Amino acid sequence: MPEITRRADPAPSRWSYRVHRILLTPLYRRLLRFGIPFSVCFVVALSYLSQPAVQEKLWLTIADLRNQIESRPEFTVRLLSVEGASTGVAEAIHDSFPYRLPASSFDMELDDVRRAVEALPAVASAAVRLRQGGVLEVKVNERQPAALVRTREGLKVVDVEGVTIDIAPSRTARPDLLVLTGAGAAAHVAEALEIRHAAGPLQLRLRGLVRMGERRWDVVLDREQRILLPEQHPVRALERVIVLNESQEMLERDIAAVDMRLAARPTLRMRERAVDGWWRVRNMGVGQVNDD
Q1: Which among 237, 257, 144 has a CA at the least distance from the CA of 194?
Q2: Cα separation of 202 and 196, whole Å?
Q3: 154 DSSP β-pair partners
Q4: Which of 96-129 are b and which e, b meaning 16 or more Cβ less than 10 Å from the residue's Cβ?
């Protein structure tokens, strides 16, 4: 019989099939295309950059590039502009400015500038921003003087919250401000201003307010007269005194104080000479009756 020749099997072997299937997997294909080249480049670059001379040269290049950018004219601050502040406060802001101009805006911390401005007693709040043309703008919300508080250290100018703004050399330096004294007076400036506003016709005679026992106010008038206000509703009590004064001219008489601490029983305190005169007149009347 003729010999039968066997044809080679075209099917791949088991291992060849498995390798072929692995190479067709997307993950392995990406690894061969990108992963291995990237790893080789990364190892080469890391080996190159690990040399001290290369690192020093690289940092010098970065520092020089940064310096060139920061020193450009558009990033240089040349002027400090203060808005919303009085002349004295503006001068204090310039004096306390923590940077020396001209300076790069990259070297400035705007929060530090804002905190330095707000640290001034006369400043309630501040906003800081950079403007075109190298201008650093500081907008100030300044505290407004509300009263003078007399202490052992002198006269302090305070705002409505009782925060000390300045020191007044004398009473005549700020005649427009109400004078307060007594323990705890600075903590109740708003209430004192309400009392002053309610004083109305007594404004010209008003000399100040005294905080008594850290609880209530005494209104001090000229001619050494006082109105003792209660702890609760002092404005209402003062309005009653004004009504009585307008109808009976009570404060024009020789009295030392009007005591309104008990709302149901207002009390007038006469001066010593007025009391002596009253007793003299009474005794004269009694003597005339006895003679009759």
Answers
A1: 237
A2: 9
A3: 151
A4: ebebeeebeeeebeeeebbebbeebbbbbebebe
Model pLDDT for residues 70-122, shown as the tens digit of each residue: 566 666 888 899 998 888 889 889 888 888 888 877 778 888 889 989 988 88
**For 52, how many CA atoms within 13 A lie in the half-sphere containing its CB?**
0
Is the Cβ–Cβ distance between 113 and 123 less than 8 Å? Answer: no
- Here the tokens at position 283 are 């005794």
Closest CA to 184 of 209, 219, 207, 206: 209
What's 20-32 look like in SS3?
HHHHCCHHHHHHH
CB-based contacts of 125: which residues, under 8 Å, 6+ apart? 118, 140, 141
The sheet carrying 267-270 orders its strands as 164-168, 154-158, 147-151, 178-181, 206-212, 216-221, 225-228, 255-259, 267-270
Alpha-carbon distance 264 to 241, whole Å? Answer: 13
Q: Which residue, among 96, 101, 91, 123, has the nearest Cα to 112 in the 3D structure?
A: 96
pLDDT of 262-291, one tens digit each?
A: 888 888 887 766 555 545 555 655 455 455
Burial class (CB in 10 A: 0-12, 13-18, 19+), 72: exposed
**Measured distance CA(26)–CA(187) in Å, rounded:** 76
Give pLDDT, residue 22. Answer: 72
| pLDDT tier for residue 232 given thresholds of 50, 70 and 90 | very high
Q: Which residue has the higher pLDDT, 235 or 21?
A: 235
pTM of the complete model beyond 0.85: no
- DSSP letter for 144, please: P
For residue 209, the surrounding DSSP H or E stretch is: strand 206-212
Residue 216 contacts by C-beta under 8 Å, 6 or more apart in sequence? 228, 229, 230, 231, 234, 261
The CA distance from 170 to 174, in Å, is: 8
